[in-house]
Design goal:
About 25% of the residues lie in helices and about 25% in strands. With about 350 residues, the protein is an alpha+beta fold. The protein folds into two domains: about 25-170, Immunoglobulin-like (Sandwich), CATH 2.60.40.2970; about 190-355, 3-Layer(aba) Sandwich (Collagenase (Catalytic Domain)). The strands form three sheets. The chain has an eight-stranded antiparallel beta sheet, with no helix packed on it. The longest helix has 28 residues, at about 190-220. It comes from Dendrothele bispora (strain CBS 962.96). This is Neutral protease 2. Its cofactor is Zn(2+). Pfam families: Peptidase_M35 (PF02102).
C-alpha cells in the first residue's frame, strides 16, 4: 500500500529578484509505503510539476529533485522527535556548476525522481514505529535558459504547507551504510593538496576567532543583524567558538571523494555520520583569506578558509545548507539564518574584510 501527499508551492519574495517575469508555482506529490518490515523497502517517488506559463530551471542540491547524492531531501520525525540525518552536507559554487546541477521543468510538465533513504537517517537508533517523511520545502529557480552563476540569479520558492507521508516501520532496522568508493583513502596523500587543506583549516579557525571577538565587542550591530536578524549574539558566537576551538584528533580532512559526492559545482562536503570533511577538485582553485584585502570579494565565496569554516560548522555545530550566496543568506528568516552554514562563511569573511584589511 502507498500513501500519497500533495502540496502547492508559492513564490516567496527574496532580496534579489530572479529573472522570471511570470510564475504560477510548482506542485509536489510524494508517494511511499504505508507499512514495511525492512528498511530495504523504504523507497519514495517524488514528482514536481511546473504549473507556470514558463519553463523553469531548478537547483537540485538539497531538494527532493536530488536523488543522486546523499543530501537531506527529507525531514524525518518519529513521535515528534527528529530522526538523525547521517548523509552529507555540501558547499556549492554555482559559478563552477554545469547543467547537471539543475533540473529543467517545462511549463505544464512533471519531473519524477525516486529516493532510497535507508542509509541517510538513523532509524536503528530511533527504533521501530511510525515515521513521518516531509520533503524539504524550498527550491531555487530561474528561467530555463538562464546561465546561472550566482544564487542571486534565482528565486526562492517555499511551500506554504509541507506534504508528508507516514510509514510504519517494524522488523529490520539495521543501520544501512552509504556506498563508499573502494579506491578511496581516509587522508590526502598529495602533498600540495594536503598543505592547501591544512592552510584552509588554520584560516578557518582564525576567521572564527575573529568573528567571535567581533560579536563580543559589537553585539547585534547592523552587520550582525543583516546576517542573523533577531538571533542572540551569544548563540551565534557559540558556533564560531566551537569552530575556533575544534580539536578532534579523529576528524578527517580528505582530498579523496570517498562518498562520491563531488558532483558539478560541489566544493566540499561533510559526512554527518562521521563529521569527516571531503574536498572536491574545485576547492583547490580557491584563494587564501588574505586575498579579501586585494583580489577577491566576500560575495565571490571563493576563500578557502571560509569554505572550511562552512564545513566545520556542519561538523561541530550541526548546521544545515538552507542555501548559498551572501545576498541570499541575508534574506533568510532568523531561524534559517541561525542554522545555515553559509551565513557563517559570509559573515566571518565580511568581518575579516572590515577589520583586517
Amino acid at each position: 500500500m502507498f500513501a500519497l501527499s500533495f502540496v502547492a508551492l508559492v513564490l516567496a519574495s527574496t532580496a534579489a529578484a530572479g529573472p522570471l517575469k511570470r510564475y504560477n508555482g510548482l506542485s509536489v506529490s510524494l508517494a511511499g509505503p504505508n507499512d514495511i518490515s525492512s528498511l530495504d523497502e523504504l523507497k519514495f517517488t517524488a514528482s514536481v510539476t511546473n504549473n507556470g506559463a514558463e519553463d523553469v530551471k531548478v537547483l537540485k542540491y538539497g531538494t527532493i529533485l536530488d536523488s543522486g547524492l546523499p543530501t537531506r531531501s527529507f525531514t524525518v520525525t518519529k513521535d515528534g522527535a527528529e530522526v538523525a540525518f547521517t548523509g552529507v552536507k555540501l558547499s556549492v559554487s554555482l559559478e563552477d556548476a554545469d547543467e547537471t546541477a539543475f533540473a529543467v521543468i517545462p511549463a505544464g510538465e512533471t519531473v519524477t525522481v525516486t529516493h532510497e533513504v535507508a542509509s541517510v537517517f538513523d532509524f536503528a537508533k530511533a527504533g521501530a514505529g511510525s515515521f513521518t517523511f516531509e520533503p524539504v520545502q524550498t527550491f531555487q529557480i530561474a528561467g530555463a535558459d538562464a546561465e546561472v552563476k550566482s544564487i542571486v540569479q534565482m528565486d526562492k520558492v517555499s511551500a506554504s504547507s509541507a506534504p508528508s507521508v507516514t510509514v510504519n516501520i517494524v522488523g529490520d532496522l539495521t543501520k544501512r551504510e552509504m556506498a563508499i568508493n573502494k579506491r578511496a583513502t581516509d587522508i590526502c596523500t598529495t602533498a600540495s593538496r594536503k598543505s592547501f587543506i591544512d592552510a584552509s583549516y588554520s584560516e578557518a579557525k582564525s576567521l572564527a576567532s575573529i568573528a567571535s571577538s567581533y560579536i563580543g565587542s559589537n553585539g547585534a550591530n547592523s552587520l550582525f543583524t543583516s546576517y542573523y536578524k533577531t538571533n542572540s549574539p551569544t548563540t551565534i558566537r557559540s558556533v564560531f567558538n566551537a569552530v575556533a576551538g575544534e580539536n578532534s584528533s579523529s576528524r578527517t580532512l580528505s582530498c579523496v571523494d570517498s562518498l562520491g559526492a563531488c558532483s558539478s559545482g560541489v566544493i566540499a562536503y561533510t559526512s554527518t555520520q562521521t563529521t569527516n570533511i571531503y574536498y572536491c577538485s574545485i576547492f583547490f582553485n580557491e584563494v587564501a583569506t588574505s586575498s579579501l584585502c586585494s583580489g577577491t570579494s566576500v560575495a565571490s565565496r571563493n576563500v578557502r578558509g571560509g569554505t572550511t569554516l562552512h564545513e566545520l560548522t556542519h561538523a561541530v555545530a550541526g548546521t544545515d545548507d538552507v542555501g548559498y550566496g551572501c545576498s541570499f543568506d541575508q534574506g533568510l528568516s532568523a531561524a534559517n539564518a541561525r542554522v545555515n552554514a553559509d551565513n557563517y562563511n559570509c559573515f566571518s569573511t565580511q568581518v575579516y574584510a572590515n577589520t583586517q584589511c
